UniProtKB/TrEMBL annotation:
The lineage of its organism: Bacteria, Pseudomonadati, Campylobacterota, Epsilonproteobacteria, Campylobacterales. One of its GO terms (biological process) is removal of superoxide radicals. This is Thioredoxin reductase. The keyword Oxidoreductase applies. One of its GO terms (molecular function) is thioredoxin-disulfide reductase (NADPH) activity. It catalyses: [thioredoxin]-dithiol + NADP(+) = [thioredoxin]-disulfide + NADPH + H(+).
Amino acid sequence: MLDLAIIGGGPAGLSAGLYATRGGLKNVVMFEKGLPGGQITSSSEIENYPGSAQILSGLDFMAPWSEQCMRFGLKHAMEEVTRISKNKEGTFHIALAGGKSEEAKSVVIATGSAPKRANFEGEAEFFGKGVSTCATCDGFFYKNKEVVALGGGDTALEEALYLSHICSKVYLVHRRDTFRASPSTIEKVKNNPKIELVLNVSIKKAYGDAMGLNGLIVVDKEGNERDIKVPGVFVFVGMNVNNTILKQEDGRFLCEMDDNGNVIVDLNMHTSVKGLFAAGDIRTKAQKQVVCAAGDGATAGIQALEYVNH
């Protein structure tokens, strides 16, 4: 039986493994079907991780993490976890694709979340080359340039405000003429001279060349088109939380979740189920930053160590 099963191989999962094994747990396995690193490996540049002064691609930035985090005995299983359930005796059943399974004394869920795509033409083609889902990560690369922020919720408007401090102009593109954001945020956006509202339109396509994005064609309900020439588009249309492995056969979740499907945890990353911890983007109120995910993972790893030992 495993002392600890970690589900997910991003910054949170790797950090959990590092702290649990360095603390003394001997039988710790991180289940990650692909190579470790998480969604941050798709980022073109990382420049806001404390202590890492060199600007690196997400792939290069995460490259040394595996070696360091596995130095004390963390094992990587390239297996797909399909469901986690609790056994009567208090241990956990880890169901794997293909009918295999493992048993574990404790579990850290670090499966993260993935930004939703708006699914307009050219979005996938220019993702990482002008299309982004993280203003904090990539906004600085468009300093004093014009960009588009797409969406109508709190995140979209808050990120538009953030980008307005960096960029010369922000076009806030939304398919409706009303927003789902808080009234105070809407007021700030409307009063910001660097933000232009482009409402009641949808993106027809993104266009560019081998160097990256050059602009967007948006169209209103009457079919009128507008060409917005920008090198950057930030898509904020929600997140898909990777929580399916917590769903039980009866459709309920293994632990308590919030209304958006995020795992509810306390400050020590404890879920409502003893021995089950959650770290990183999958937890409620996560900041969606590598440094925060790593901190969550370290906390979860230490707590799992204490749970198994005591």
